[in-house]
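Tutorial handout. Part one gives the primary structure; part two gives the three-dimensional structure as tokens.
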Amino acid sequence: MYAFTLERPTTLADAVKLAAAGAKPLAGGQTLLASMKLRLSAPEQLADLAGIKELTGISKAGDAFVIGAMSRHLEVANNAEIKAAYPALADLASRIGDRQVRAMGTLGGSVANNDPAACYPSAVLGSGATIVTNKREIAADDFFLGLFTTALEDGELIKAIRFPVPQRAAYVKLRQKASNFPLVGVFLAQYASGVRVAITGAGNGVFRHKGLEDALNKAFTPESAAGVKIDASDLNSDLHASADYRANLISVLTQRAVAKALG
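Part two.
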């Protein structure tokens, strides 16, 4: 690990100033600190966000949950209101990584990092959530731009994410045992406006699948999902799984997610 300085701002305004001056925001540190230890990342200054109360808390606002960016995965998983009204979101949070990751990792850190195999981006995109920053509000469809890339600008920090509560939803993944990341994960949610299906782990970033959404809007059944052909041409192929295998997983896991959502 290279030498660096650590700042501990206590207000969002101070954190924004540090970020604008070039400091690297530190949320849960589950990705950043590991990459620093391997000398894959060498920020000269870190701004630890853990002491900023403005970035914490979980509340219900109308038909949506507003979750602070520094909320830990365990806090989301154990929140009684989320478990009752949006159990798929609590379930997803309860199965991220391992106990250490769930105890330290944060919603905002995961979403800002946008790892192509992370669980939370699929929940954000599948929910049609809104990312609230210190500058603006960004729709999920406009936020995820590709491999470790988002719409966040330099010095822009996530304050909270607003998740509209669906009629029903589910998250199903096949875990890659070496890393605990999903080899493929499928998050689907049904709203009055239609079904959203978000896929993680299969490509260079989280993405929605229009074919599955169209089919499930016509008939929300596992059989409807099974009838959709999944194109493997843009999917990842690596030592863990071929693109064709991942395409098959998308189909199978979507069928399982529909069945799970139906109860």
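Part three, for discussion. The chain has two domains: 5-164, 168-262. The longest helix spans residues 243-262.
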